[in-house]
Specification:
This protein is of the alpha+beta class. The chain is built from two helices and 16 strands. It folds into two domains: about 60 residues, no CATH class; about 150 residues, Galactose-binding domain-like (Jelly Rolls, Sandwich), CATH 2.60.120.260.
Length: about 300
């Protein structure tokens, strides 16, 4: 046997063996292409998953080669086509929709605010009604003294806690005080006659307790009979004299003392009530609701 033939045949067998091993490895790779090469004819075919035929050598190569160098920038592209012209009416509709949505929200907020305002007004109205329903009261320091004669007594019916007041004392009258009904604001009134022949008068004294007092006003209801005294004289501390006209029906006379009695009083204050210009001793003068106002100073 030819020695060269034997060596060549062994080499081909060895090549086939090693090629089969490489092909088996190449089939498992996802990055390579597998094929076989016929050693005699030189034909090349894709092998797929099939084993090589006799005298075929498996070969494979990578699907991708190594990355090449970065290329140069390409040329600038052509300008795109011009877009369609917008319609202002479309934007107007969009704007109107937005404004309508915003306005709807504002209307809702305004409506809520209006309801809150209505509720606040109702509460204020309720508070005003409550305040108006409260009885009117003068400050405690304002009403100093009052005589209403409803109990047919000359004792005061109201005395401020900061003062001491005497009863309404009657001087130079031949008879006891008498009481008459008919004043609309009181059940009884003090009725006195003998104003022509006798110098009679009524007197009260106010004593401040600890603090000084200020006297502001004097109120008195007066009524005379047809022959009773036409004038009533109020004298305060024997130096301040006021003349009041008496009518044949009850009238409330008011004396504003704040302008004249500007000083405050730490000592007792005397108030004298007298009458004049009566036509007969039988003529009467009726007195009711004698009220003195002022303030006890702190």
């Amino acid at each position: 046997m030819n020695k060269k033939f034997v060596v060549g045949t062994l080499g081909i067998i060895a090549l086939l063996v090693f090629s089969q091993a490489g092909f088996s490895h190449a089939e498992t790779s996802e990055e390579s292409i597998n094929a076989v090469y016929h050693i005699f004819t030189g034909h090349l075919r894709l092998a797929g998953n099939r084993n090589p035929r006799p005298f075929e050598v498996p070969i494979s190569w990578n699907i991708r080669g190594p990355p090449g160098p970065k290329g140069d920038p390409g040329e600038k592209g052509e300008p795109g086509e011009k877009g369609e012209d917008c319609n202002p009416a479309d934007f107007q509709e969009i704007i109107e929709e937005i404004l309508e949505e915003k306005a709807s929200g504002l209307y809702a907020e305004i409506s809520n605010m209006q309801q809150e305002i209505i509720q606040l007004k109702e509460r204020v109205s309720s508070l005003e009604d409550l305040i108006n329903s409260l009885p009117e009261q003068e400050p405690e320091t304002y009403s100093l003294l009052a005589y209403d004669f409803d109990e047919q007594s000359l004792e005061p019916s109201l005395v401020h806690e900061g003062i001491v007041a005497s009863e309404l004392m009657l001087f130079n009258n031949a008879s006891s005080p008498s009481w008459a009904q008919g004043n609309p604001t009181s059940g009884y009134s003090l009725s006195l006659n003998n104003w022509l022949s006798q110098e009679q008068y009524l007197k009260l004294i106010i004593h401040p307790k600890e603090n000084a007092i200020r006297i502001d006003e004097l109120f008195i209801d007066l009524r005379r009979s047809g022959t009773g005294p036409e004038n009533v004289i109020i004298t305060i501390n024997e130096e301040h004299i006021y003349s009041l006209e008496a009518q044949t029906s009850f009238q409330t006379a008011t004396i504003d003392l704040s302008a004249e009695l500007t000083e405050v009083f730490n000592e007792p204050v005397s108030i004298i009530i007298s009458a004049e210009n009566a036509q007969s001793n039988a003529g009467t003068l009726r007195i009711d609701n004698l009220i003195i106002t002022g303030e006890v100073l702190s």
